[in-house]
Amino acid sequence: MTGLSTNLIHADDSKSRVPDVVTPINVSTTFKYDEDPANLDAVADLPDGYKEDQFIYSRLQHPNQVKLEAVFDEILGGYTVVYSSGLGAFYGLITHFNPKQVAVGPFYHGVKRILDIHERNFGLKQLSYSEEDLEKLQPGDLIHIETPVNPQGTSKSIKYFADKAHAKGALLSVDSTFAPVPLQDPFKFGADIVLHSATKYFGGHSDLLAGVLVVKTPEIRKQLADDRTYLGTNIANLESYLLLRSLRSYELRIRKQSDNVEKVVKFLAENKDKFKTLRTITHSSLQTESFVKEQLPNGYGPVFSISVDSKETAKLLPSRLKYFHHATSLGGVESLIEWRAITDPYVEQTLLRISIGVEDPNDLIKDLDQALSSFN
Ligand SMILES: Cc1ncc(COP(=O)(O)O)c(C=O)c1O
């Protein structure tokens, strides 16, 4: 088996159409048909609608999206479908699997909004993770978990939820955005579908939106890709070029970010009492349950959260930091901090979410030290 970094650079080699080492940006939305009339077929005469390797119109498929899926298939251990955003991927998931009930907990608020739309339009029922609610699941229903969870950065046991789902004939989908490969492989613990906002670590430079679904069979992949064509949620041409470029260096970034976060969280946890306004620090590295280390054998996700004594401190803290931009999102090479209440209506207003980048960890630690100390 080839290693992750080799796959990131070479898994799409066979899909190259030109000798260029750097994949060209393809902006064409439409592609010329075969010049030989003998090779033309009516779509109604083709069993699968269109030929797999044919480029017709970029909403169906286009060269760099196909290359992306070749890389993702190899590194994510399943059959992948790329989307225009992480939410586009979740929308594809809910549309295709069409559960009557979905069990969800606190998680990224945008995903919740999609479930709210389905509840409004189609009567989808949202259940909690309580034992009582999980008992109500029926075949075809879905449990959706995010692990590590946004914004706290703490882990849930994938195996626990997989067992609960499968006992009822339901499916488990896992949003693994906060701990992508090689940190976590949700399929190992029983997930049926894996989702990533590729906007985050796979993109890594805060300059593109993309999403990925990973499923276990080529048949489901094909159905999701067909739905994507008519939902209009395929990744855009320019974005697919940028994402492919980003994947080449992905492993270097995620390993460095994961190393960095462990050092930063350790510093804060060991020095918590030194900072008068610091109340809590949440991160998988601080959890003691044994499943956490099993799920994250190669390092922790680079996002964690802190809570401080008041809403006022939470609003002020970002302005006292030098190396953390005050902005939403995560996964980029630059560290970010966000007073999360600006975008998330469901969190405590004293919470700050921190996304660790690839800077020198000592500089990040010194910066947090001086900013938190300034409130003492
Ligand atoms: C855990 C998680 N899942 C999904 C999404 C949605 O991804 P996107 O912004 O690419 O639509 C986000 C966005 O922040 C997220 O944090």
UniProtKB/TrEMBL annotation:
Transmembrane segments: none annotated. One of its GO terms (molecular function) is pyridoxal phosphate binding. SUPFAM superfamilies: PLP-dependent transferases. It comes from the Eukaryota. GO terms for cellular component: cytoplasm. GO terms for biological process: transsulfuration. Keywords: Pyridoxal phosphate. InterPro entries: Cys/Met-Metab_PyrdxlP-dep_enz, Cys_met_metab_PP, PyrdxlP-dep_Trfase, PyrdxlP-dep_Trfase_major, PyrdxlP-dep_Trfase_small. It holds the Pfam family Cys_Met_Meta_PP. The keyword Aminoacyl-tRNA synthetase does not apply. Belongs to the trans-sulfuration enzymes family. This is Cystathionine gamma-synthase. It comes from Wickerhamomyces mucosus.
